[in-house]
Design a protein that fits this description.
- The protein is an alpha/beta fold and 178 residues long.
- It is 39% helix and 16% strand.
- It has a six-stranded parallel beta sheet with strand order 3-2-1-4-5-6.
- The longest helix has 15 residues.
- It is globular and about 60 Å long.
Length: 178
Amino acid sequence: MDRGVRKVPFGYVEEKDSHSGKGTLVYYDTFQDVTEQQLTHAAALAKARSFAKLVLYPLHEETARRMWKRPIEPYYMREDRLFDWRRESGEDGTITVENWEGKRKKYTPIEAAIRHLMDVYPQPLFLYVSPETANAFASFNSFEEWIGRLRLIITVPPPDAHPNLTKYRHRWDADEKS
């Protein structure tokens, strides 16, 4: 909160900002196979649930390689595609492309990424993930610690949910409209 002294006329009532929702929706994905319709749907979901920000968090190649063991496009190509989509959508104020992993240029554990996101963006934090990412996250030892601090929104209900996802079913929602 800004602690500077401000002078305002008598009777001034501060108008609420239309973008002042609560919390942050973080789309945590590689964005290699994500279409523009899926990105538009994520933006609509963030607006419908009154989130202050939608953060697009593209994963570095090393992170994706360790999580799924499959080839992936270079980081800068996927990031450029996200910047182009954001510019075309016209919602520059509420949509952010987080390039922290691009600056690190190496494998970033999901725990470090979440810690960074919690330090930078307004809370509560919601991760918007695919079923594969949710299962991978649930398989980590630190999942039980982190699921208490954030919530998951999974793009489609996972057909073969990890036992930890089943155990913490009350901490995630499935977005069936994507």
